[in-house]
Design brief:
The protein has 176 residues and is mainly beta.
């Protein structure tokens, strides 16, 4: 989210100097009326991760790199069609608990790559990335889980249960 916001700010600054052009980048869709501006906005708004959800839990490596992200307690499976050595980069997510009149509590929650029940790699922070170089086997299914999400109902401030907000963890696979 911070990355997307930063891209929007940078592109907005660049767009100030762009000349107005009434041709639409996508026929029938007028965002700003300028093809260059529309393209930059579409790129900045696009999501580059494969998001874990209750209905999207199984991923197969494709392309030069593959990013999986999430912010729920759901686990996912990940398979590589062709085995080999991969550089794996991970960043923890953040959970924030907020209640009116109370201080915000923040927790990191880590992303973990498992082979069965064995942890192969774990993120360590939401403010920096951690990495590992691993050999993954062809057609083997690995599990992506997380640890550290808390239930807001376990907390109270001034008699109120806080609301919970999260930012994504991410795990990126790049075949070497």
């Amino acid at each position: 989210m911070i990355k997307t916001f930063s891209m929007i700010v940078i592109f907005s600054g660049l767009l100030i100097h762009c000349q107005k052009n009434e041709d639409n980048l996508i026929d029938g869709v007028k965002l700003t009326g300028d093809k260059n501006s529309d393209l930059l906005l579409l790129l900045a708004a696009s999501d580059t991760c494969n998001r874990i959800s209750s209905t999207n839990k199984s991923f197969i490596y494709s392309g030069n790199s593959f990013v999986i992200c999430g912010n729920t307690e759901e686990t996912a499976t990940f398979t590589v069609p062709v085995g080999g050595t991969f550089n794996i980069t991970m960043k923890a997510g953040i959970q924030r608990l907020v209640a009116t009149g109370c201080s915000t509590r923040s927790f990191d929650f880590n992303v973990i790559l498992y082979d069965g029940t064995t942890s192969l790699a774990t993120s360590t922070s939401s403010t920096s990335t951690s990495s590992a170089t691993l050999t993954l086997s062809a057609s083997k299914t690995y599990t992506i889980g997380n640890d550290g999400l808390v239930s807001p109902s376990n907390y109270s401030c001034l008699g109120r249960t806080p609301s919970s907000g999260t930012s994504d963890f991410s795990i990126t696979f790049v075949k070497i």
